[in-house]
C-alpha cells in the first residue's frame, strides 16, 4: 500500500522521541516494517563489567561520582576541538521551512533568524553548536517534477543567497573548499547549496550547468522518486519497480558532467544499484549527504556494507543522518544511537569516511540529546568517550568533507579543456504532457541509441550518403 511520502512517518510520542517544533515537513516515505535488526548497542563509557573487589559498593559509588566529571571533561574537550575545527554539516532544510512558513519573505518580523524559535535551526543555535559550514538544501518536492521544479529550485537558491546578504555577520556564501576555510578563519558559517533531487534539473545538462554557476555544489541524484535517468531508494522496497537498474545512459552523462564541473555527486535517496554504478564510474569521490548505516537500521535510505566498502575504496564520505527512522528504524532514538552509526561507518569504511549530516528541519523526529543544531558538541563528546582520537574527530567534523571537496576540485582542474556534454535526453524518455519539443524535431542527437531494428537501415543510408 502506498503511504504519504514523509520523513515524519514514524510519529512523535513517548520518551526519547523528539518531534520537530515545526509543522511543515518535507514529503518522504517511512516503511514501518523496517525494524532494527543489527548488532546489539555499543556499550557506553563505564558499562564494562567490573571485577569484584573488597569494598565493591564503595567503588561503584566512586565511579558514579566520577562519571559526570568525565562526561564534562569530554564536553570541554569537544568544545576545545570545535573552536578551531567547527562542524560542516551535509544537509539542513531550513530553506524549506522558510518557504513553507514565510514564502521566503526573510524580512518579515517572524522570519528573523536570530529570534526564530520553532525550528531546529536559528543563528544562536548555530553558534552554540559550533557550526562552521552548512550545506543548505534547496529542496523542492517530487510533485514538482515535470512541472515547476526548476523555477522552485531557483527560488530556494535565491533564499540562501539572501540569507547571506541579510546576515553578513553570520553567513558567508562560498562555493569552494578554500571559501570554507576562509569562513572558519572569520568565524562565520560557510554557506553552500545542495540540490536535493535530480528532478530539479528537469533532465537538462544546461540546467545542471546553470545551477552550478549559481552556486550549487552538490546534487542528490534523486529524492524519493525516480527521475527519467536514475532510480531512487523506493525501488529497493515493494513500493516501486526499478526502471533503470541504476542509471540510464543519460544518467551516466549527468555524473560525467558533474565531475567536469566540480559538483559533488550525492547518493542519499538513490537505489543500491544507483549507488554502486556511480561509485564505479565517477572520476571523483562522492558523498552521502544525509544517510546512515543499513546494518544498524534496515531502512533502504541507509548504506549497506558492500557499498560502504566501495565508499572506502573511492575515498568517498557518509555524512550520518540523525532522523530517528533512519537511526533506529523506530519513532525513538538517543544520541548514542547516532554515535553507533558513526562507529559502524568508521569500522567498515574507515574514520576518513565519516561525517555529519543531521537533516535538521527536514525531519519530524530527532534523537534525545540531539534536539537541534546546538547539540553537535554533545555528539562529539560521546565520540571522544568512545576513544575516537582528536584527529578522527576533526576528520568527521570537517576535514573529511574538505578532503572530498578538494579532490572533486582537483578532478575538475584535470578536466579543464574537456568540452561540455551537449547530447540531450531522448524526448520519448520524458513526461511530455507539459513540455514542448523544440530542437528535437530537427534531427538533434539524443542520449539514447537507436532501436536495433533501425540500425541496419541507418547504416545503409549513411553508406549511400558517403558514396554519393
What keyword list fits this structure?
six-stranded parallel sheet, disordered C terminus, 468 residues, alpha/beta
Strand content: 5-15%
Number of DSSP helical runs: 14
Radius of gyration equals 24 Å
What is the number of strand segments? 11
SSE order in H/E notation?
EHEHHEHEHEHEHEHEHEHHEEHHH
Q: Major β-sheet, in short?
A: 6 strands, parallel
In percent, how helical is the residue content? 25-40%
- Assign the structural class, choosing from mainly alpha, mainly beta, alpha/beta, alpha+beta, or little secondary structure: alpha/beta
Question: How is this structure best described in words?
Answer:
The structure is a single chain. With 468 residues, this protein is of the alpha/beta class. Helices cover 39% and strands 10% of the residues. The chain contains 14 helices and 11 strands. Strands 2, 3, 4, 5, 6 and 7 form a 6-stranded parallel β-sheet that branches. Strands 8-9-10 form a 3-stranded parallel β-sheet. Helix 5 links the parallel strand 4 and strand 5. Helix 1 packs across helix 12 and helix 11 (335-349) crosses helix 12 (376-385). It is globular. The chain starts with 16 loop residues before the first strand and ends with a helix. The model is unreliable at 1-24, 29-67 and 449-468 (pLDDT under 50).
Quick take:
Helices cover 39% and strands 10% of the residues. With 468 residues, the chain is α/β, with parallel strands linked by helices.
Amino acid at each position: 500500500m502506498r503511504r504519504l511520502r514523509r520523513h515524519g512517518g514514524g510519529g512523535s510520542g513517548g520518551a526519547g522521541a523528539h518531534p520537530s517544533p515545526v509543522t511543515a515537513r518535507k514529503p518522504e516515505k517511512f516503511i514501518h516494517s523496517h525494524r532494527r535488526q543489527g548488532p546489539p548497542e555499543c556499550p557506553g563509557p563505564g558499562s564494562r563489567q567490573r571485577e569484584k573487589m573488597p569494598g565493591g559498593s564503595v567503588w561503584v559509588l566512586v565511579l558514579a561520582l566520577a562519571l559526570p566529571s568525565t562526561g564534562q571533561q569530554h564536553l570541554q574537550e569537544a568544545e576545545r576541538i570545535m573552536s578551531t575545527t567547527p562542524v560542516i554539516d551535509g544537509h539542513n532544510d531550513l530553506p524549506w521551512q522558510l518557504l513553507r512558513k514565510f514564502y521566503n519573505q526573510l524580512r518579515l518580523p517572524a522570519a528573523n533568524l536570530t529570534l526564530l524559535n520553532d525550528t531546529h535551526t536559528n543563528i544562536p543555535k548555530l553558534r552554540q553548536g559550533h557550526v562552521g559550514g552548512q550545506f543548505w538544501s534547496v529542496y523542492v518536492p517530487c510533485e514538482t517534477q515535470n512541472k515547476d521544479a526548476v523555477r522552485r529550485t531557483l527560488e530556494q537558491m535565491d533564499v540562501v543567497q539572501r540569507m547571506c546578504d541579510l546576515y553578513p555577520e553570520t553567513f558567508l556564501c562560498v562555493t569552494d573548499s578554500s571559501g570554507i576555510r576562509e569562513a572558519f578563519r572569520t568565524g562565520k558559517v560557510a554557506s553552500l547549496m545542495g540540490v536535493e533531487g535530480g528532478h530539479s534539473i528537469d533532465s537538462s545538462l544546461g540546467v545542471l550547468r546553470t545551477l552550478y554557476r549559481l552556486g550549487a555544489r552538490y546534487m542528490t541524484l534523486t529524492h524519493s522518486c525516480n527521475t527519467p535517468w536514475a532510480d531512487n531508494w523506493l525501488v529497493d522496497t515493494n513500493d516501486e519497480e526499478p526502471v533503470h537498474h541504476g542509471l540510464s545512459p543519460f544518467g551516466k552523462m549527468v555524473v560525467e558532467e558533474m565531475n567536469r564541473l566540480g559538483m559533488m555527486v550525492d547518493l542519499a535517496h538513490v537505489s543500491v544499484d544507483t549507488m554502486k554504478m556511480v561509485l564505479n564510474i565517477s572520476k571523483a569521490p562522492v558523498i552521502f549527504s544525509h544517510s546512515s548505516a543499513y546494518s544498524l537500521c534496515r531502512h533502504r535510505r541507509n548504506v549497506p556494507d558492500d557499498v560502504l566498502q566501495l565508499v572506502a575504496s573511492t575515498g568517498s564520505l557518509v555524512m550520518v543522518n540523525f532522523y530517528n527512522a533512519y537511526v533506529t528504524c523506530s519513532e525513538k532514538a538517543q544520541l548514542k544511537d547516532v554515535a553507533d552509526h558513526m562507529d559502524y561507518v568508521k569500522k567498515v569504511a574507515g574514520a576518513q569516511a565519516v561525517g555529519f549530516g543531521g537533516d535538521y528541519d527536514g525531519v519530524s523526529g530527532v534523537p534525545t540529546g540531539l534536539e537541534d543544531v546546538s547539540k553537535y558538541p554533545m555528539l562529539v563528546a560521546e565520540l571522544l568517550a568512545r576513544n575516537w582520537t582528536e584527529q578522527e574527530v576533526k576528520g568527521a567534523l570537517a576535514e573529511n568533507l574538505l578532503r572530498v571537496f578538494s579532490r572533486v576540485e582537483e578532478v575538475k582542474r584535470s578536466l579543464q579543456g574537456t568540452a561540455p556534454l551537449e547530447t540531450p535526453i531522448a524526448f520519448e524518455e520524458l513526461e511530455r504532457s507539459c513540455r514542448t519539443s523544440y530542437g528535437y524535431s530537427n534531427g538533434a542527437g539524443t542520449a539514447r541509441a537507436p532501436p536495433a531494428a533501425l540500425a541496419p537501415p541507418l547504416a545503409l543510408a549513411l553508406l549511400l550518403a558517403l558514396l554519393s
